[in-house]
Amino acid sequence: MANPLANNAAHSHDAHDHEHHDQPATGIKRWIFATNHKDIGTMYLVFSLIMFFIGGGMAMLIRAELFKPGLQLMDPVFFNQMTTNHALIMIFGAVMPAFVGLANWMIPMQIGAPDMALPRMNNFSFWLLPFAFTLLLSTHFVPGGMAAAGWTLYPPLSLQTGDAFPMLIFAIHMMGASSIMGAINVIVTIMNMRAPGMNLLKMPLFAWSWLITAYLLIAVMPVLAGAVTMLLTDHFFKTSFFNAAGGGDPVMFEHIFWFFGHPEVYIMILPAFGIISEILPTFARKPLFGATSMIYAIASIAFLSFIVWGHHMFADGMPVAAQLFYMMSTMLIAVPTGVKVFNWTATLWRGSLTFEPPMLFALSFLFLFTIGGFSGVMLAIVPVDFQYNQTYFVVAHFHYVLVPGAIFAIMGAVYYWIPKWTGHMYNMTLAKWHFWLSTIFVNVLFFPQHFLGLAGMPRRIPDYAVQFTDWNMVSSIGGFCFGASQILFAIVVIQCIRGGKKASALVWDDARPHGLEWTLPSPAPYHSFTTAPEVK
Amino acid sequence: MTVTRGNVDHSTSRPRKPLLPGGLGLAALGMAASAGANTSNGYNLPTGVTDLARDMYGLHMEVFWICVGIAVVVFGAMIFALVKFRHSQGAVADTSMLHSTKVEIIWTIIPVLILVVMAIPAADLILKQEDTRNSELSIRVTGYQWKWEYAYMDAAEGVDFFSTLARDSNFARQLNSGIDPNSVPNYLLEVDHPLVIPSGTKVRLLLTSQDVIHAWWVPDFGAKRAAIPGFVNELWFKVDPGKEGIYRGQCAALCGRDHGFMPIVVDVRTPDDFKKWVGEQKAAIKQAALPTPAGAPASAPAAPPPTAQALPN
């Protein structure tokens, strides 16, 4: 096994020649010209956290307006701008960059590589994002304000957007280009830079989940780019792709959008599956149950994601055969997802469990993501979906899979690996507070939304009939408390970067961390593995 | 229909409930629904007043209870593991069984079977929902930003009017209006001219839109479908005889600024009363067509429908 510290020492002789290879550059240049996977990973994660708070701030405004009936704070247009941009920022700005950041940090370390395969493209794909989101957020100041047609951008409504429209589309193009480059980098790295002996089936689950996610990204981001470009030409160049009056078809946009949109949903959850599959075995002190079938399950979910998009559009009118097809294909997703949940449960079974913060988040994921899965099965049942479609039931469903699903997995991953990144342990007590407050209030926030939806409250409305008051108040209180709890996360992370108890190489000494990343010292050396380790 | 009792309860039937209804108790609390009541108990789907809505409710509860059953088993196993296999209780990891093809096949097959059990009645209901044949009354519903137009066909041919948010709701919903929504009867769920339909009759709606995508939804009928420019979508419902009354819904597709403010109100009457109403409407249209200097626009009934709520305008 290579000792990276020794490598660093050996190289320090000619440090003045090869400084940029061994040591980070100093000052702002380190970040602007970053090609190191750890620096870029850090930037992705910091960017994601900033976007999480901006998108979260929008959510707080939404919940504040919905606290009671009547309009107290904002015009309905501003409300629609908040729902639209909350979604865009959380999806493209918070969740996806967080996963890319984790991929940057962890994939080279997990597969025994020194860095990502394409470091300059890595730099470019990160630096597109600040520009894309600055552009997106700056639409607040142009005539007409931010886009307000929902993140799904359905025409004809989205064509009524003001000057924000071309800016939004350009921003989406930049985000898409960034995602595609990030995905290419992951695939090239995994395919070419695995340590000797690490065949694909020996590869850690997180790297596996990202490999599959990367293919999904390459497959669908161009579809989104095509869809928004058609919107652009409909708006500015008199084409009629989606304009019924010109012979176009507004429903075609929905088909194209959701052909992107459904795989996109899995892009936001598959890496989370990978993370949970890393954390549970460590703190259960036994290997993942059925690791190979876990990989097959991820691959099946990825495949199914391409043939279920119609389930977003049942209420738009669809032939019976199509309704049956999309219903059954959607229900099928429950099978590999069930396999994953069962395998995770079997991993806990006859284990030896401890409850460190990453484990707590992983367990919370296990329960709450499964609740999101149940409501997902209910939504797949077409004839009842007519009652759920476009109500708060849907809002509850996808927030259950995205907040205690994707976001909790990301936070669990940070709590799991951050000692490896910084070399410091963090404040466990504060992290546990963060966990308990988040888990309690995420349910106070989203569980009542099931009731609201079933009782008939449509989504995306700024004001509601008085019979929906009680549950909206509960939900808003949960929202404010959940939002406030996230400040603890930022505090724990910042403290951990600045200092703390020294972390050992294994970090979780009395648990069972497994994988190449734990063979590196903490903090991990600037270039992860300068000599490839042997994998038996 | 609704008698306003002070300023606490204006929803048609729902008594204000305490904040916490027994957690997961989503079971049907069969509300003794007064005529025309919203048949939702405030946290579950409405039991409905049409065949379709009842079937939807039944299937919803079936799938819900199956999910609860699975949840009990899966969460039970997880909780058992969390309690039983704790390091602090001296549990030692048993790493002997890392996979088992038999177990994995079992927990692949069982979910498939459960899904089949759900899919069969679902497929049945889809066929029923899509069968719009032999309708007795067709109404063309057109969505606009932000109102609905109802144009009757068949026996009521010629009756055609717009339906917009009632004025008192509209005043109260303005930003910082100073009006307490609780003091407005049926806040945001009242219109100037409700859709009037006969009970016991298969009504078919033909939905389209003049601008952006809207969706017409009355939960108690189990009826929701998008109204899309350039398309005509169909849906049908048949309100049970004896369930005459007022039913309410809202636009269910984001359609711009006032998406939250284009409700749907349906006034269900007995076939006889409906016939009478059609007669009145036709007479009013004829009246309006007479050469008077300020004739009402042909698209709106000259007189407010007799059932219009006692609104302060």
Structural overview:
The complex is a heterodimer of chains A (536) and B (313). In chain A, helix 16 packs parallel to helix 18 (469-498). Chain A is mainly alpha-helical. In chain A, 67% of the residues lie in helices and 0% in strands. The model of chain A is unreliable at 1-20 (pLDDT under 50). Chain A has helices at 4-11, 15-22, 29-32, 37-65, 76-111, 119-138, 164-192, 205-236, 250-267, 270-284, 291-304, 320-332, 334-348, 357-380, 382-388, 392-422, 428-455, 469-498. Chain A contains 18 helices and no strands. Chain A has one domain (39-519): Cytochrome c oxidase-like, subunit I domain (Cytochrome C Oxidase, Chain A). Chain B is an alpha+beta fold and 313 residues long. Chain B has two domains: 51-130, Helix Hairpins, CATH 1.10.287; 137-289, Cupredoxins -  blue copper proteins (Immunoglobulin-like). Helix content of chain B is 28%, strand content 18%. Chain B has four helices and ten strands; from the N terminus they run H-H-E-E-E-H-E-E-E-E-E-E-E-H. Chain B has helices at 51-84, 101-130, 167-172, 271-289, and strands spanning 137-144, 147-152, 160-163, 195-198, 203-209, 214-218, 223-227, 233-237, 245-249, 264-269. Chain B has a five-stranded mixed beta sheet with strand order 3-2-1-5-8, with no helix packed on it. In chain B, helix 1 runs antiparallel to helix 2. The longest helix of chain B is centred in the first third of the chain and has 34 residues, at 51-84. Mean pLDDT of chain B is 84; it is low at 1-35 and 295-313. Chains A and B meet through helix 5, helix 11, helix 12, helix 13 and helix 14 of A and helix 1, helix 2 and strand 7 of B.
